[in-house]
């Protein structure tokens, strides 16, 4: 392990985090808010700490290996959230560091669970920072899932290797940098268009910025206590739905589409599966809502579409208190928390790609029972999926389920009822946001015991880093020479 | 598909079912019960129907193929339960055929869920038949899991191929017959010893027969409303615990042990994993019970051991109303419903063998991230597990989870609350017996809507036949030439 290089990379992340605090600082200045002081202190601490580490770890560039890659990614989120939580600490928004760190991790991992009990009583600068942490985290995730994880060989994204824009080189650094720049442009473009469209729908300048940030990151932090419901506008819900859909799809495909290869991208297996799952889920919840509530057809359609897209893409906005819906609808929403968006999106969960391939192999095994000697390959986009990739996806699936079960056991041990325990873990690991029971869409996570908050904080990071990337750091073999 | 052969095999099963009704008929005669008439009618119908089909499908023996194998196994349980439900129908115990069939399937699949609202008000002959259906089903399962499924190539049992007693021939029929006879002797022996030990503990002759039947089958039907708690005897609980443990272990290993290869059997990876999971689970539930209830240490230990073994082996007896335990204990028990006993036991669930291999591969994938070029094989009993077997286990896992989710969605759609919906499906697919919520250990399944009962009936059969064996019959490819 080249610790010098690791610290160097982390110092860069700390510096960027510090610099980005200039945005809420500006907001505090404009709105004349006292929280500006907290941002100024945090900014200075971050810049000084980051600067010092940067200075002491300066050295000629060296090619990094897998090991440094995992360490930078794994520790990166943890360290960024640490410095990103400073404004919450200094502004006195929370009583404890636990709460401040929970909120910061929920931001940078684009989860959207909150320990704030009253969102609307917060200052503009604090809420802007909250939204910005998600948007910033979203940039990291695009970079991670499209540029870094495939090269590190993590769970399935290798399938898209050929589609990823950027120079065709095996050297890790230049490729990552180029890819990131291209995809971030797409991300920025979408955010900007959403902002314009939200403004056109009458949303305030400030709310439009915050919601564009958290939609594109599939984060789901809102500036309102009752989330998107507070705007009461079908137009705004439609705009947000469309951009959640975009954010939950693969950004490498978006890049393809924007550069004129629309037809090829629309044939992508994962994209089609994603849209099919959304259509089917919406259909069932729509039927269920229209027959078990007094919403009527139109409102049932509107609410079911918005909620399904919000949960599947792991955004976590709500346009209604779905805690009040039927057991069927609630259970369905719970299941969707595991599914997640497409690989290479800002969405969390297990990802469409993996679910798609798992189901395909389940079917293949059935088929092989009838034709034991037939050679049948699982295919993705007409290409044979290697058994190495399938193994890595299966391993991901079993670790995900295993950790989910263990974490939910711990939550229930802390005295949470079963539904709240299970859904709080599912929503954290899937980076969704709201759960059910005492952590429903219009509740919050502040009443959880401290240990529980740390368990969920770990789940958010684990889920965001596709389990493997963080877990690998805990293997003794990782630290061997 | 050689339909003649299929019907011939099914007719044999019907005849055996009919003949075995002589047992409850005898009981009705001894106890002077009116239900004897129902058994007589059912016996005659079964013998006549079975006899006619047998007569019309007589033909020289032919070697059967995979296709007939799947059809016999898949339809076998359905047909046997159909004839086995006749006594319930004719005795008027249930108001509907749905209930009668539910109870019969719950018996033959050794599940143990019941639609009886008051068990103790039933006649001796009916309760004996109920217990016997489980014991009879248990014989079928040993045959299925050790002799048939490995040859059909279903999910993992191939690993034990070499250990299975019987002639080393590739011809399906003689091998199956020989293996079955050897293992059934073990089954019979254990049942008999348990009967003696239960009698020695003061249990009545009748109760001892019924409970020996349902212990060895890991079935869990009891003659009492409050199951094993009603005996209030630590001795009886210990005896039953030991025999549940035996019944949940691989019968091929038991055969090995009894024929003098004790040392080798005790080294079996699955057996060790099985005992380790039980020890760990008991430990946690024991600690939890002793700190959240007023049971005290000794009673907490007694109740936790019994309940963990009962659920893991998928027997489903209870020695306390665990519905009243903490959320942690209940959730833990719920998770154990998925795990199940060892492959080659009468237990249901996913089986220890599979869980063991899934976790091993999860770990291997982590390891491979650090050493991308290392060739690491998943091993079982020091032997490399082929990727074909791993694929088939993964396929099993994903189909199991997928069907679980879908079935629970249907149950919640029928208006059940989430906990009852989810646990009723888990307990049915795992062939356990009791669930939580409205289908807890001291509740029953009679209040479910008719559709719900049929969903759970299907789940019991699906789980019992290791998903694949039944599902394969629904593939269009299966019926192609």
Characterise the protein shown here.
- Two copies of one chain form a homodimer.
- Chain A has 481 residues and is an all-alpha fold.
- Helices cover 66% and strands 1% of the residues of chain A.
- Chain A contains 21 helices and two strands.
- Chain A has helices at 3-20, 22-31, 36-56, 66-84, 86-91, 97-108, 124-152, 172-200, 205-216, 234-247, 251-258, 262-266, 269-292, 296-312, 327-339, 352-370, 387-413, 418-429, 450-464, 468-471, 476-479; strands spanning 379-380, 383-384.
- A two-stranded antiparallel sheet of chain A has the order 1-2.
- The longest helix of chain A has 29 residues, at 124-152.
- Chain A is globular, with a radius of gyration of 22 Å.
- Chains A and B meet through α4, α15, α16, α17 and α18 of A and α4, α15, α16, α17 and α18 of B.
């Amino acid at each position: 392990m080249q610790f010098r290089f690791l610290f160097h990379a982390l110092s860069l992340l700390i510096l960027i985090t510090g610099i980005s605090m200039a945005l809420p600082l500006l907001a505090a200045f404009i709105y004349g808010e006292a929280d500006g002081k907290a941002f100024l202190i945090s900014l200075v601490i971050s810049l000084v700490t980051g600067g010092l580490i940067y200075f002491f770890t300066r050295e000629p560039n060296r090619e990094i290996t897998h090991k440094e890659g995992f360490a930078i990614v794994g520790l990166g989120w943890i360290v960024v959230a640490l410095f990103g939580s400073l404004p919450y600490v200094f502004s006195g928004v929370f009583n404890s560091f636990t709460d401040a760190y929970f909120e910061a991790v929920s931001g940078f991992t684009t989860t959207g669970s909150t320990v704030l009990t009253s969102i609307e009583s917060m200052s503009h600068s604090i809420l802007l920072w909250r939204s910005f942490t998600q948007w910033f985290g979203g940039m990291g995730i695009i970079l991670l899932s499209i540029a870094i994880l495939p090269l590190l060989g993590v769970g399935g994204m290798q399938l898209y290797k050929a589609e990823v824009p950027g120079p065709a080189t095996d050297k890790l650094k230049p490729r990552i940098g180029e890819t990131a720049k291209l995809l971030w442009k797409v991300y920025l473009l979408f955010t900007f268009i959403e902002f314009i469209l939200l403004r056109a729908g009458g949303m305030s300048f400030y709310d439009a910025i915050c919601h564009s940030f958290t939609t594109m990151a599939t984060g789901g932090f809102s500036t309102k206590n009752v989330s998107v419901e507070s705007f009461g506008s079908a137009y705004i819900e439609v705009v947000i739905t469309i951009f959640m859909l975009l954010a939950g799809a693969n950004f490498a495909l978006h890049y393809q589409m924007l550069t004129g290869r629309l037809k090829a991208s629309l044939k992508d297996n994962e994209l089609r599966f994603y849209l099919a799952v959304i259509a089917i889920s919406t259909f069932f919840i729509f039927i269920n809502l229209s027959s078990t509530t007094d919403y009527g057809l139109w409102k049932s359609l509107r609410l079911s579409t918005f909620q399904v897209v919000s949960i599947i893409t792991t955004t976590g906005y709500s346009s209604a208190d779905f805690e009040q819906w039927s057991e069927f609808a609630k259970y369905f929403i719970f299941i969707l928390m595991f599914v997640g968006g497409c690989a290479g999106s800002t969405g969390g969960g297990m990802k469409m790609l993996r679910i798609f391939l798992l189901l395909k192999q389940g079917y293949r095994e059935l088929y092989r029972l009838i034709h034991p000697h037939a050679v049948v390959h699982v295919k993705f986009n007409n290409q044979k999926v290697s058994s190495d990739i399938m193994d890595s996806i299966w391993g991901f699936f079993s670790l995900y389920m295993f950790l989910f079960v263990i974490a939910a056991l711990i939550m229930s041990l802390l005295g949470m009822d079963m539904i709240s325990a299970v859904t709080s873990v599912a929503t954290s690991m899937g980076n969704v946001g709201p759960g059910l029971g005492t952590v429903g869409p219009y509740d919050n996570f502040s009443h959880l015991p401290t240990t529980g908050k740390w368990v969920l904080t770990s789940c958010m990071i684990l889920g965001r880093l596709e389990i493997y990337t963080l877990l690998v750091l805990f293997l003794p073999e990782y630290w061997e020479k």
